[in-house]
Amino acid sequence: MEPRITNPAALLPDAVQAVNILYKTAHSAGVPNATLELVHLRASQINGCAPCVDSGARAMRKGGESDDRLFAVAVWRETPYFTEPERAALALAEAATRLADTPDAVPDAVWDAAAEHFTEQQLAAIVLWIATTNFFNRINVTTRQSAPQHWG
């Protein structure tokens, strides 16, 4: 599948500065990087964003993430590989990504479970990172950006 246009960030370079600020802000609140990367990967899987799934999984692997955890992100509920805080963040990422799927988009139980493990500042960062990931996903899927080819 061919992209519809060049990546919008390349066409509108001022957007890159704003995206960099969002990235820096979300990653400065004390949430473990692995948690933010898991949230990014799961939201990107849900949205079918090939470049984000590809880059997210590669970044996690480069950061030392195990194949067991990488391969199990889509089925995190059925595996033993994730901590309770990670599970709470993944549930929040799924709910906030699938806003239109249910009348109570982010149920209190999902929010409360995340609030048990993260401070308000950390929750703000997780929500900001979920929103930023969904922003990237929507741009990439809409413009049909593809994952880069890494094999021969």
From TrEMBL:
<feature type="domain" description="Carboxymuconolactone decarboxylase-like">
    <location>
        <begin position="13"/>
        <end position="95"/>
    </location>
</feature>
<dbReference type="InterPro" id="IPR003779">
    <property type="entry name" value="CMD-like"/>
</dbReference>
<protein>
    <submittedName>
        <fullName>Alkyl hydroperoxide reductase AhpD</fullName>
    </submittedName>
</protein>
<dbReference type="Pfam" id="PF02627">
    <property type="entry name" value="CMD"/>
</dbReference>
<dbReference type="InterPro" id="IPR004675">
    <property type="entry name" value="AhpD_core"/>
</dbReference>
<dbReference type="GO" id="GO:0051920">
    <property type="term" value="F:peroxiredoxin activity"/>
</dbReference>
<dbReference type="InterPro" id="IPR029032">
    <property type="entry name" value="AhpD-like"/>
</dbReference>
